Amino acid sequence: MKRWLLTLTGLLQLCNLQAQYKVEEAPEWSARFIRNNGWFGGDGIYSIPFNGVENRRSDSLLFIFSDSMIGTIENDSLQPGSRMIHNSVAIWNGKELQFYWPENEQHEAISVFEPSTPLTEKNDYYWLGDGFVNQEQDNTLYIFGYRIRNVSQEAFGFREVGNTLIKIKQGTKPPFMKYEQQDTPFFFTDKDGQIGSFGAGIYVNTKKAGAPAPDGYVYIYGVHGMGKGMVVARVKPAEFDHSDQWRFYDGREWVKEMNKAADVTDKVSNELSVSPLPDGKYALIFQEGGLGTTIGMRVGASPVGPFGPVIKLWDCSKDAEEKTYVMYNAKAHPGISAPGELLISYNVNSVEFFNDLQKHPHLYRPRFLRLKLTH
To answer: In 211, 231, 263, 338, which residue has its Cα 20 to 30 A from 219's Cα atom?
Structure first.
């Protein structure tokens, strides 16, 4: 009987929440990434306001991408000479996007960030996690770098092998030829022997960052295992790059031991976001289960929950022009969102990437939705 009552309560809460918002496409933002020259595709999109003020619109904002395509499309046909690099960046000035990547001596596009930490092995490369501008450390830009290694030629023939922090001094211009990087202990194996890593999302809960209920901490979200469990750490921004100062939520309190971190929810994606809502709660935005057609939201009472049931915001099925397409890693972007709204991006890719890219050269780019909060 008690379980039935709890289920009924959850359903009533879910119905109430669904009455408080509506979701629609944001075609003007999706169109900004339909490009025919230079950068014409990428995933892993995160947005970082340069002034460090999160959760409000900004006209000076950094986008970071993981695997990116550089080349030329003419008459909807991909031209010879296109090239994949493992990460790139863009700057939004309130009106337009400017993309950046470096070139080698042969004038070929190369990745913005390359791993060179003590734990790096030959041929490792970076995909990027979330980042923020740390106002307590001279407005230094921090970005999580995931060291990735190819292990086979199959569609998912890669694995993460390490977690790092990339550190960029204020005033450094893209494509960031000068930066620091350090290995972190925040790549782990869970109790089931599956890997996990922190950096999937960051919520800066400080007064300077514009948080509505600041407690002075940066919250860092990690994801692990096939069940996509989400764990949480926090640290004061002044100590962000001091791993011994991080604390991990064990479901009741904050502890020093990372292996005691408890899942606060599950079925999330390896990239996600946590954003405050007008009613004092928090929206966790993600692709349900990591890969799939459902963009989900869970609403939490705090940055660590407890989080409610999955609210299905959007079905991405219509983006699957081919059966080989996959959708993944939805997240919100408060820095480009109007008051009372959250712009949400999600990625589109293919398990037969290069074959499908020849047929649909604009397939590999973010799509955008607008979550309009009616209360």
So the answer is: 338
* Look-up of token digits 């996509």: 228
pLDDT class of 38 with cuts at 50, 70, 90: very high
Give whole-number Cα distances, 34 to 39, 119, 271, 308, 324, in Å. Answer: 9, 37, 22, 36, 20
Round to whole Å and give the CA distance between 309 and 8: 12
Q: What is the CA angle 168-219-283, rounded to 5?
A: 115
Query: How many whole angstroms separate alpha carbon 143 and alpha carbon 209?
Result: 17
Q: Residue 350 corresponds to which tokens in the numbers above?
A: 């293919």
Any idea what DSSP says for residue 230? E
**Short-list 131, 161, 165, CA closest to 149:** 161
Query: What strands, in cross-sheet order, belong to the sheet with 97-100?
Result: 46-49, 61-65, 88-92, 97-100
Residue 7 above 70 pLDDT?
A: no
CB 148 within 8 A of CB 128: no
For 244, list phi and psi in degrees, rounded to 5: -75, -10
Q: What is d(CA 58, CA 337) in angstroms, rounded to the nearest whole number? A: 9
pLDDT band at 375 (very low <50, low <70, confident <90, very high): low
Please state the φ and ψ torsions of residue 129, each to the nearest 5 degrees.
-95, -160
